[in-house]
Design brief:
Length: 392
């Protein structure tokens, strides 16, 4: 059976990939820079190798990744995070003997850079929130007076809700823009959507010819942060117009591999707006896989040049939950916690898939708890050090 390398394995999406391929009989080797790694503890993980964090030393990371590939005779590599995918694309010559389903570097940058995503969406008439074009020569003070507030500042490259800032008036625009711009140059400036909006995620996989082979659509129900962030509780849904728009857009930009297109849908008007394209596996793929839309298996087979019988999801009203820490944090900070249609711990829907917990593979659940405790201890220690330094 083929040997598959799954990078950045200490995440719920990587765990889903490891489980999916391990169940199919593949030898799955996982790598990350963590000792306590949830995929490592899965019974479907054949081997694990701790390697250098790419944020510390990119060159050493690539060197160690190539050694893992050699040591385990890896035939297929599945990069799970944006940074790893970008590094592999930048060093394609070193990985040319390994099979994968990677987008072109141009298509990848189009998706990862929110500014480029906006430009491409406008080119292909994909609806987006009103966006204000700002150049370095703009008179920001004068321009900001004409914005329709509130607006939102988005780092061009980020994940989750990190760096996203809401601006309520022209009086605070310059200060907040300067704060974001110093950390993340040239942020995207858009209107902040208000009204009865729902977050819609369209998960797709495209072959080497940019043909969409499978898809699954979710509607977000809860998030953390509560005001907008990664989805913690979600359900399958049908939005044909949004799906059609996504398929056509990704085909036009010649996309290859997995992608997640995220939209905001106005329940009252039916209008929808593209928010971003995530150029790697979705954190919430477990629900799709449980419904038979096996994105990890499709990715692997397409990487090998095999034909697949893809699937467009037709099973609606199935639910997914990322309980710890995601939905638990939503419960703690959500003022409407006791007014939810679906419970956090009780009164859950019958068709529910957990992102991490599995009765047949229980160890990753406890490993996740240990990892969270260790991270909490580390953060507390860092805070104590900072407070101590500030009092000197």
């Amino acid at each position: 059976m083929k040997n598959v390398l799954v990078t950045d394995s200490n995440s719920r999406k990587s765990l889903c990939v490891v489980r999916s391929l391990g169940k199919q009989g593949y030898n799955v080797i996982a790598t990350s820079n963590y000792n306590v790694d949830i995929s490592r503890s899965s019974k479907y993980c054949s081997a694990f190798r701790k390697i250098t964090d790419y944020n510390i030393d990119e060159e050493q990371f690539i060197k160690e990744l190539l050694k893992v590939i050699k040591d385990y005779s890896i035939e297929i590599i599945i990069p799970m995070e944006d940074d790893t995918l970008e590094l592999i694309l930048k060093h394609q010559e070193k990985f040319k003997h390994i099979k994968s389903l990677l987008p072109s570097y141009e298509a990848f940058r189009l998706a990862r850079d929110k500014g480029k995503t906006v430009e491409s969406a406008m080119l292909y008439n994909v609806p987006i929130p009103k966006t204000y074009n700002i150049s370095n020569n703009d008179n920001l003070a004068r321009r900001s007076e004409g914005f329709r507030y509130p607006i939102i500042l988005k780092p061009r490259i980020s994940s989750g809700s990190r760096g996203i800032t809401i601006v309520e008036s022209s009086n605070e625009f310059l200060k907040k823009y300067d704060e974001v711009n110093r950390l993340c140059p040239n942020p995207v400036v858009q209107e902040f959507l208000q009204g009865n909006f729902k977050k819609i995620q369209v998960l797709v996989i495209a072959d080497q010819n940019s043909n969409i082979k499978a898809s699954c659509t979710y509607r977000g129900i809860r998030e953390f942060p509560v005001s907008g962030g990664p989805v913690t509780f979600w359900k399958t849904a049908s939005y044909p117009e949004i799906e059609k728009t996504t398929f056509e857009f990704l085909e036009k930009v010649k996309w290859t591999g997995f992608a997640e297109a995220e939209y905001m849908f106005n329940v009252d008007t039916g209008e929808f707006y593209l928010i971003e394209i995530n150029p790697r596996f979705s954190a919430n793929i477990s629900l799709a896989v449980s419904l038979g839309i096996d994105f990890p298996l499709y990715y692997t087979k397409l990487s090998l040049g095999e034909k697949i019988q893809g699937k467009i999801n037709e099973e609606f009203n199935s639910f997914g939950q990322w309980l710890i820490p995601g939905d638990l944090l939503n419960f703690i900070f959500n003022k409407k916690r006791f007014k939810q249609e679906y419970g956090y711990f009780f009164k859950k829907p019958k068709k529910l898939t957990h992102a991490i917990f599995s009765k047949s593979d229980i160890k990753p659940f406890f490993t996740n708890l240990i990892s969270l405790i260790l991270n909490l201890v580390t953060n507390i220690q860092d805070l104590i050090v900072k407070l101590g330094a500030n009092t000197k």
